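We were asked to recover a plausible sequence for a given structure. The inputs and outputs are reproduced exactly as logged, with field labels preserved.

PROBLEM: sequence recovery
POSITIONS: 150
GIVEN STRUCTURE:
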């Protein structure tokens, strides 16, 4: 059985960035409250901008926190933050596709699986462990469902 789970290093890095942004937001709001060393427009632009970036990062972290297990012709998906877990047979795969993008001299790979109940599941090699084994398993067991790129 192959278990793909989020990489701890990715979530550690994102948490550090989130803490830095949060401390920056606290500093901006504290400075506005007590000393106002910058102009009002600075505070009106920076505070909402940093807040939006924090919220986007939180949503990305929460959406990417998912687990997938594959083996014995079954795929089990788990979304712990939503409290959902579902098991599919390989026959229930409508299509799957692996996308490859090269950025900054590194290869970013992402696989998307669409099931017959119209739900989809996406995971990438930078955010999940055992990604390569998962794609090899899909290629071996469900190669007929793979989307052909022209």
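RECOVERED SEQUENCE:
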């Amino acid at each position: 059985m192959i278990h793909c789970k989020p990489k701890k290093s990715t979530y550690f890095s994102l948490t550090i960035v989130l803490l830095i942004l949060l401390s920056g937001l606290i500093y901006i709001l504290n400075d506005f409250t007590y000393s106002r060393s910058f102009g009002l427009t600075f505070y009106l632009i920076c505070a909402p901008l940093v807040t939006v970036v924090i919220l986007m990062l939180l949503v990305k972290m929460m959406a990417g926190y998912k687990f997938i297990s594959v083996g014995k012709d079954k795929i089990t998906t788990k979304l712990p933050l939503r409290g959902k877990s579902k098991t599919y047979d390989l026959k229930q795969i409508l299509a799957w596709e692996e996308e490859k993008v090269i950025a900054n001299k590194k290869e970013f790979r992402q696989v998307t699986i669409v099931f017959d109940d119209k739900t989809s599941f996406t995971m990438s090699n930078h955010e999940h462990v055992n990604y390569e084994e998962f794609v090899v398993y899909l290629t071996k067991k469900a190669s007929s469902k793979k989307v052909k790129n022209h």
